[in-house]
Amino acid sequence: MRGMAGSRTYRTCAIVLDKTKLKETDLILTLLARDGREIRAVAKGARKPGSRLAARCELFCTVDLLLAKGRSLDVVSQADLVGAPLGAAPTYEAMQRASVIAEVASLCCFEDATDPFVFSISAKALRVLGSLQGDCPHMDLLVAAYVFKLLSHVGYRPDLSSCVACGDPALAFFSASAGGLLCSSCASSVAGAEAVDAEAVNWLRALLPLTFDELVLQHVDTGTSNLLLALSHAWAATHLDARLRAMEFLLGR
Ligand SMILES: [Zn+2]
């Protein structure tokens, strides 16, 4: 059945979201394919010293892959580096934020569902992140915007127009479980609602319509970017119903 071999392989471009060790020398790659599917594949021998496969499948890079269909996991037969958005020597700060982007991306992609937007927004966020080496407030602003944009795309868009409970335009709290902004009186009966001032409300409203490139040109201070990051964490953890360990680590929790 030699002729069948061709149908068992396929080529795709993908972002490397995660790498975990398998056996002595292998790696399992979690990949976000260009069509938005999640692929889990084995890179055999990738942990042997001097493995070319490992060098071409670095975290957060875009790779062109030839994969062989396997029974449970696919197998990487060839890999070519297409893009290293964080550059050849990424800073620790950039790697931390990229880990959060990859973590949220992996919760929003599935083996059996295509959604090219997930690939394109993740690739774009990583590229812009790579241009911000060392600029932590803008990196956090970018991550917060990425989380709210992607979550909105997959069906969890915050209501930022008026109080989600009563429609009052005077807004003073944000609650992920309530679905967005709240007035003071409604917030008093919502556990875990976070106080937000008028500036934070304006920032939240800017995250969805502005592009990443536009956002990183805005002036933002560390307090504001920390708050937006924390709110994006609450939003993602609540609506994806998952623990976000890289995000918790970035927030110092
Ligand atoms: Zn209200």
UniProtKB/TrEMBL annotation:
GO cellular component: bacterial nucleoid
Domain DNA replication/recombination mediator RecO N-terminal: 9-83
Pfam families: RecO_C, RecO_N
Keywords for this protein: DNA damage, DNA recombination, DNA repair
Biological process according to GO: DNA recombination; double-strand break repair
InterPro entries according to UniProt: ARFGAP/RecO, DNA_rep/recomb_RecO_N, NA-bd_OB-fold, RecO, RecO_C
Domain of life of the source: Bacteria
Similarity comment: family membership: Belongs to the RecO family.
Function recorded in the entry: Involved in DNA repair and RecF pathway recombination.
Protein name per UniProt: DNA repair protein RecO
Organism annotation: Collinsella tanakaei YIT 12063
Lineage per the UniProt record: Bacteria, Bacillati, Actinomycetota, Coriobacteriia, Coriobacteriales
